[in-house]
Amino acid sequence: MAKVNKERLLRILQMAEAAHPQRVDLVTELGDECDAAIVEILYLRDHGLIDIHVSGYMNSSEPSLTPAAITTAGLDYLAEDGGLTAELGALTVKIHAETLQQMLELMVLRSDLDPPQKQRYVDQLRQLPAETTKHLALKAVDAAIQQSGKLLPLLQSMFDS
To answer: Which of 78, 125, 137, 154 has the fewest Cβ atoms nearer than 10 Å?
Structure first.
């Protein structure tokens, strides 16, 4: 099995992008390299990054290629930000300031602080503006990520019960 040449693969995709919205004749563009590039062309086609028809390759006759067009998946693959594919696949979580405040209060109430301290912190949390609560919640998430080694035992206890 032939190995995919990533440099040539990217070059083929960029050729198709440069021609977009038109199709590009890869036989002409690749010249003598076209036969060797069949592996990359098929790879790009099979992943839905280019639209092209290849015939004659499997029966050891001279391969015939239709002009290639880059697909939206191909354009998004080349885009630095991943294009709409990344946006559509992103998970957005919206939490209201009131919910964040309740979560922070719960953290305080579950802490080892003595009851008067807990009440003082809860009272102060309730007076914070929404933007400050948001900032504090982000700091709490950062702290939790730094302590992520404790997450695995928690997950294990949840899933093993």
So the answer is: 154
